[in-house]
Specification:
α11 links the parallel β8 and β9. The protein is built from 12 helices and 12 strands.
Length: 334
Amino acid sequence: MATIYEVAAHAGVSPATVSRVINGTAVRPALETRVQEAIAILEYRPSKRARALRTKRSEMIALVIPDLENSFFTALARGAERVTREAGYSLVLCNTDGDPAYETAYVEVIQDEHVPGAIVAPYGGGAPFAALLDEGRPLVAVDCRIADPRADAVLAANHASAVLATQWQFDQGRSRVACITGQREVDTARERAEGWREEVDRRTGAPDEYLVWTDYQVAGGTRALEQLLDLPNPPDGIVAANHLIAIGVLAALAHLGMKPGDITLSVCDSLPYLTVPLPGLHTVPNPSREIGAHAARLLLARIHGDTSPPRTVVLDSTGAIVSSAAHPTTQPVS
């Protein structure tokens, strides 16, 4: 690989002149033409790491997520990566396993590597990320809000998707509709539970035990269904807050010799590995890829100088924007 000194020798200029051309500093047009021709002939590629050391800013974007094995975050990463790649940035995945200690460790990596901004799926409010905002690095939260109002957010319309999933249950003639959702401290879990509660209260009402808080995992769905089936008057329909919970419910039904139609199942999510439709099963897609793409575009705009007030963008199940509102904050975006 050619060096800056070889480019300078080929163009008949100093290495400093080559550096100025590479970094966009004005030089005489004739010199710039000679340097650009030498770069093309020698196929010179500037060192991104060296540039990051000079400018204190790399051409990487961090995507910090809690569960790389969750297909929601895989699709989100694909949406973000397409946008960042087209803009000339590399997307770096950071998996935290929902552990605040890992979030803190990745914050330090972002600082050390001069990463100009990050897309984060915070756990429990995302307090470790405040250090990045303090330094003026923009953040975009996805999947749930971050506690710090200086961060932008791109979210799914969780409440609305749960309302739609619950409506479908009643449209199928079900009258005892339960909800299995994630942890209470997670925004998406609470919002989907609220959407379910709003619709069942409008229709028939439901006892408190029809709402089960669990974790967003297959085993959590299985445990929750077993708990509901042990009730004196078990439900005849289930709203599952994500696809992993839904898979756990389907596994438990199969183990008991039941079919999805015996207890209808509606999911506030896509089921990415389902190749054929199942009777008694309904999905309200989660716009994960679109969330990633919108978050990346918003973050790149911040990196390139957008100083408008921080905002929350909400997407419906098709990926269309249903709301985009500025945060009530007096703190400026750096």
